[in-house]
Amino acid sequence: EGDSKPGAVLDRIIREGSSLGVRVLATMDSYNSSQRFLNRKALSEFEMRVLFQMSANDSAALIDHTKASQLGLHRALFYNERRGYTEVFRPYAMPDGSWLSDVRDHFEKRSPRLSKSSGDTCTS
Which one of 16, 25, 56, 107 has the lowest number of neighbouring Cβ atoms within 10 Å? Predict the structure, then answer.
C-alpha cells in the first residue's frame, strides 16, 4: 500500500502471504545477495531452508550454526527452524509423486482456502 519498491512488495508478501494461502519459494546465490532485498525479519519468515556449502559466517547468519560450512561436494543441509531440525542430504534426486502429494496435502491442511480442485496436480 503506497510503496511499490520490489523489495518492499516482496517483504510484504513474505510476511503476510501465508495468512492468504500464498507461499514463497526463493533461491539466492549467497547470503550477501539476500541482504540486498530481504531484511533480517523477512529472512526469519522462511521456516524451512536448504543450504549448500558456504562460509561459516553465512551459515551462522542463516541457521545460527556453521554446519553448512562443513558440507562436502554433492551435499546440502535441510533446516527446519520451527522443529530445530537439520539433515544432510544429496540434493539431486527428483522427489517421487507421492512425496509431492504429501507436501501439497500438508499445505492444504494448513490453509483450507486451497483446494484440490484448483487444477494443480502432482505427477511422477
Answer: 25
Residue identified by cell 540486498 is: 36
Quick one: DSSP state of residue 124?
-
Kindly give the confidence (pLDDT) of every residue in the chain, 124 residues in length, as a single tens digit, with 9 standing for 90 and above. Answer: 566 788 888 888 998 988 888 888 888 888 888 888 888 888 888 989 999 999 999 999 999 999 999 998 889 999 999 898 999 998 877 788 999 999 989 888 877 665 555 555 554 4
- The residue with cell 539433515 is 87
Tell me if the pTM is above 0.85: no
In a shared domain, residues 107 and 124: yes
Indicate if 63 and 83 belong to the same structural domain. yes
Q: Which of 45, 48, 44, 28 is nearest to 36 (CA)?
A: 28
* 109 and 119 both lie in a single domain: yes
Q: Helix, strand or coil for residue 121?
A: coil
Cα distance between residue 21 and residue 114, in whole Å = 7
What is the extent of the structural domain holding 2? 1-46
Statement to judge: residues 42 and 53 lie in one domain:
no
